[in-house]
Specification:
about 290 residues; alpha/beta; 6-stranded parallel beta sheet; 3-stranded mixed beta sheet; 11 helices; globular
């Protein structure tokens, strides 16, 4: 059970500061009562970069908001215009700086696989986000829903959503990029709701998307280690010791990592070992001439 001091009340799923002002304040007042009564950490909201200004930030501060997340989506103006986002990369940067100056925790959200986006542009967006020094990041691969602009483009064969494997491999690069910059990645992929899955007509939806990305990251680390320590002669059996809590990530869904390593010529066996830290592994070899 979480301690109250670590619990936040969150307003997500839209642009909170762009809704009718009276309604926004009524929600904040009700939430702030509970924050005060139960001694919670505070209130977290998500909004658009172009729905931030000094007046709004003062109101949020007054009503107990402690963290603001911006739906940046991309920091390529070309991608933002192509997807009709209605704001510029400069507005993201200006809003981010203002939020930090007011003393809020800053979160930035980016998307992959948007119309006219590329893996290279996504990695450039990640680097620009890092320069803004947010506290947290969320990464959302683009999913396709009916009655949207991207759906229209898809129907006309002008837009192709990312495939699952493509999205996983890209996010497996983005996650370590942020973590190496000491920025916490708090979500990868949309929350796995049943209705969401039913309404999604295309795109890389998977109920365990982040785990797929972590498995890919683990695979890339491990195969690089195996290739570096490759013994050229004889038959080799590799034992990979991992923490029980990390076994599913290490082995991959349906043992996909084990299967892919076999294709690369490495016979591995994953073994649970509670002494190994979560996310790490111990590599042992058995060699017969």
């Amino acid at each position: 059970m979480q301690e109250p001091e670590s619990v936040e009340i969150a307003f997500f799923g839209g642009s909170f500061t762009a809704i009718r002002r009276e309604y926004m304040l009524s929600l904040l007042e009700a939430a702030y009562e509970d924050v005060t009564r139960f001694r919670l950490k505070g209130i977290r909201v998500s909004t658009r970069p172009d729905a931030i200004n000094g007046e709004i930030l003062s109101l949020l501060k007054k009503h107990g908001v402690t963290a603001i997340e911006l739906g940046a989506q991309s920091l390529s103006n070309e991608v933002l215009v192509a997807n009709r986002r209605g704001h510029t990369a400069k507005q993201v940067e200006e809003a981010a700086v203002m939020i930090q100056e007011f003393g809020f925790e800053l979160g930035l959200q980016m998307m992959t696989g948007l119309y006219q986006d590329t893996p290279e542009k996504a990695l450039e967006t990640a680097q620009k986000i890092i320069q803004l020094k947010p506290d947290t990041v969320r990464i959302y691969p683009t999913l396709l829903f009916k009655d949207t602009y991207l759906y229209e483009l898809w129907q006309k064969n002008e837009y192709t959503p990312q495939g699952l494997e493509e999205a996983v491999k890209l996010c497996a690069k983005l996650i370590p990029t942020f973590e190496q910059a000491e920025i916490k990645v708090i979500r990868v992929g949309l929350h796995a709701e049943g209705e969401m899955q039913k309404k999604c007509v295309a795109g890389p939806f998977h109920p365990a998307f982040k785990e797929l990305c972590l498995s890919q990251i683990f695979y890339e680390r491990l195969i690089a280690d195996l290739q570096e320590n490759l013994v050229k002669t004889g038959e080799i059996q590799y034992t990979i010791k991992v923490n029980p809590k990390y076994l599913s990530v290490a082995a991959g869904q349906k043992k996909s990592n084990e299967i892919d390593l076999k294709k690369e010529g490495f016979t591995v066996q994953f073994v649970q070992d509670s002494a190994v830290a979560v996310g790490e592994y111990l590599l042992e070899t058995q060699h017969s001439e």
